[in-house]
Design a protein that fits this description.
heterodimer, A: about 280 residues, mainly alpha, about 75% helix, B: about 270 residues, globular
Amino acid sequence: MAPGVSPTAEPRWLRRLLIGAAALLLGLFLLLPLAAVFTEALRRGWAPAWQALSEPDAVAAVRLTLLVAAIAVPVNMAGGVAAAWCIAKFRFPGRSLLLALIELPFSVSPVISGLVWVLLFGAQGWFGPWLQAHDVQIVFAVPGLMLATLFVTFPFVARTLIPLMQDQGRGAEEAAATLGASGWQTFRRVTLPDIRWALLSGVLLCNARAMGEFGAVSVVSGHIRGETNTMPLHVEILYNEYQFVAAFAVAALLALLALVTLAAKTLLERGTRRGLPA
Amino acid sequence: MPRRCDAVPGFGFSLSVTLLWLGGLVLLPLLALLLRPAELGPAGLWHSVTEPRVLAALRLSFGAALAASALNLPLGLLVAWVLVRYRFPGRGLLDAAVDLPFALPTAVAGLALTALYAPNGWIGAPLAALGLKVAYTPLGVGLAMLFVGLPFVVRSVEPVLRDLPREAEEAAATLGATRAQALWRVVLPALAPALLAGFAMASARAIGEYGSVIFIAGNMPMVSEIAPLLIVTRLEQFDYAGAAAVGLAMLALSFLMLLALNLARRLWRPA
């Protein structure tokens, strides 16, 4: 062994080889697909790409995607905060079972996440006949898209908050309560400032998944152009119609969303690590 | 049970909200998945999930997912190792890139992988010249699963590797172990539980994966048709119970797999 080389470090050539291999792997395997999306979208220049994004069906898809996320994200944020509060601040029987059930949607196939709603509210679903009699449509309509999205984005906020709130313990909340703060005051003034960055990060991930979800919404959508097509479903329809430039243009917009999410998440993590008001 | 005069307020309220949220959005729908296949009766259910086409789809979904996750173990370990142990220009970018499969919508990933690995794609063309066809074959299914699974292994191994005390490696070196021996006998066993956990998460994700797979798979029945696609097909034929039966079979098999992996992890610990 060369003098001056630490016994627990790899020789420089090996270190360079490993770094090179990792960079090559991530570059070829993760970044190249991203590059391919933008290249394919702009294959014939900016005009056709822009046209694909501004035609009425695409605009309707963007609007629907935003609407679905605007419902799913706040609901799962509220539920996630409530779940994190009772799981992290209290001990009670069934607590670990509750935690496992909250994380369950992550290990269920997106297609099954859509299927379960069809089984409940589809034409031959449990509540199908009743819904038909009362002229309410859930599956193959916007409410179905929302339910499917709620299911797949269910754990994000709770999962980000629970470990953090558990680490923070309950001393601050006990002190606040002893000093006479109400429950809501304690949450807003004491707990929330401590968890806001983690909450934001959980909401970002939840939102990215809500806007990008494909499998679950595909099952409940019915694929009615301009009505029940979210952006990812619009991408599929265009692709199947061989409108490749248009498909990749909409896909590029979704990829941009992913990039913005990643950048924001990285910044948030760096900020909290540097001791920004956590 | 929290004491009645608990200082921290809100237990009853937050638990009620949580149970309502969980019950309505997750448990009730999953109950339908558990009960609907019962309509077929035991014999009908068995027949429905043992059709050759279903068995082929399940075999592909689980086989490709396990193979891809196994391949992700060395790849993820390499990436985690480089990110934790070395400092080099561009490290931040690589670190952020690892999460890309998490953030990228699956349909976008599917389109992109298909464009790259199709016989006329940037990577597909040279591979085709070598006689290797990736897109529209089971190999493409595995590739898409490799893509979605990689971050699970990296992110599972990273924190454990970061907290691993260097002293153990130093002690091994002092006792005359070569670097390779120290890594194989000291570092790798310490990382094994995290690797197993990453493998389990990557497999669970890959088994159910839909969006990134169906574009590149070609979706030929008996050859490159994954189980989730079969659920969609049965739903389109209004065969709700049949679709639910495939879904239930997938969940049951995944559950058994996760259970086995969990047992393996527990057995590992005392060693």
